[in-house]
């Protein structure tokens, strides 16, 4: 035995030889099984968005050895080939629901494939706007329905229809029909309630396909309808009911007021001896006094009173009221002074409440009522002048009362609302006056949606008013609070602070809507713990079903498992309004797994070879190893 060696039996030497061969075998096995585990190829691009009738090409390439790869598709099929890069190409794509897939037959293991997501789109042939069951001018305050027709567009789930008045966006509608990929016609409606400010307004609708970042750049042209010009009929309404004018050489009483159709004018006064039909009286011969103008069209009429006063020493009625007009709460107290600086033969107040008898030795008298409850009171202060003439000044009185109650409700509906359907809300305002100062406002949360004013200037007594609002809720409105408020705007001469604004209790809206995933597919790389999360918002809460060749049992929740095999898993979420599916594509770790196996094999093989070499140098020359 040589120095530095130690004895080793023949059986031990054979064992080491076998271990060394085993290491080499394990290395080779690792390389083979790693290649088998890797079923890797890449699509470029990974998904396509293509115009109907347009061209498309996508490459599929691999870096692993195989027994053939190809493209399966109803158009542009590529037969099995031994190349490492193949191209799916269609020069004129006209199939809406095409589903091309690239497959590979690796040298070891089963065939694998990847589907190419394809979105085929087409912008609309036409977009048009019209009114439903109506022609001609609209009337202020009435409700009308506009209709937008979009012809031959796809895919509908990428379509948004927007409504505009001028440049202001009024509403937009999206579509959740993810199953339909072919051409469709869509009709969308909008309810409007025009007012006088809308006379001459232009409404239009537009159809937009939002195909995302992977769509064509620049995006497809937005298709707009021709504008719909709206003519609105509305009654005359003066900005003020009275106007005081001091007489000079030239007097002009201008009763002009906007209305559609244009109004006719009539004048009445004790100082007019002829009929006047123009909107303006211009004369230097008009006598001081009261002139009433009435403007009338087919929708109604409105009056304005001009009070013409003399100037200087010839003042016809030398009386001053303080204040010159009053705004008083129903049941409240009021007092107004009437004074003069000239000698007289008696002055007093004429009124159905609080009248003051003729007084001879005073220059100031007060009209006073402790509890005013007469709605249409018209007090006037008069004076008998020394020239045997009498004159008087009427006191404008605005009598107001805030509502007893303001309530909100739905019209002919109870329970949850359905997304996209139309509903009518109703606001009831009880016992309020005067109605011409009333504004009813609609809110969703803190957002003002609409407001309504009233032009009934004749009615000064208590009224009940009902105002409606049409809504078309979507999923974002689930849990929203609608409410209405009644506000009396009595101006600067009204009480300070202004009367309290009366609000309804909030109406809590529950909206039913179908499930709608944010994406239709999701690719997941498999690791120790795999989570396929199909959770989606819907009301009522959806039920879940799963389908896959890799699933052996029924699952009704999200899937969380480390034992799932690579493949395709389809989840469908369903409630009473509809369903929506999502496909999870589970892939193996591929190259990571490959190199882990190879590295393990290399480490084991190298360790065994080193052990072999160490023992070899320690053995004698006659050693079997």
List keywords for this structure.
single chain, 625 residues, mainly beta, Immunoglobulin-like, five-stranded antiparallel sheet, 9% helix, disordered N terminus
Describe what this molecule looks like in 3D.
The chain folds into six domains: 81 residues, Immunoglobulin-like; 108 residues, Immunoglobulins (Immunoglobulin-like), CATH 2.60.40.10; 68 residues, Immunoglobulin-like; 81 residues, Immunoglobulin-like; 108 residues, Immunoglobulin-like; 67 residues, Immunoglobulin-like (Sandwich). 9% of the residues lie in helices and 44% in strands. The protein is built from two helices and 50 strands. Strands 13, 14, 16, 17 and 18 form a five-stranded antiparallel β-sheet that branches. Strands 38, 39, 41, 42 and 43 form a five-stranded antiparallel β-sheet that branches. It has a four-stranded antiparallel β-sheet with strand order 5-4-7-8, with no helix packed on it. Strand 13 and strand 14 form a beta hairpin. Helix 1 runs antiparallel to helix 2. The radius of gyration is 44 Å and the shape is elongated. The N terminus is likely disordered.
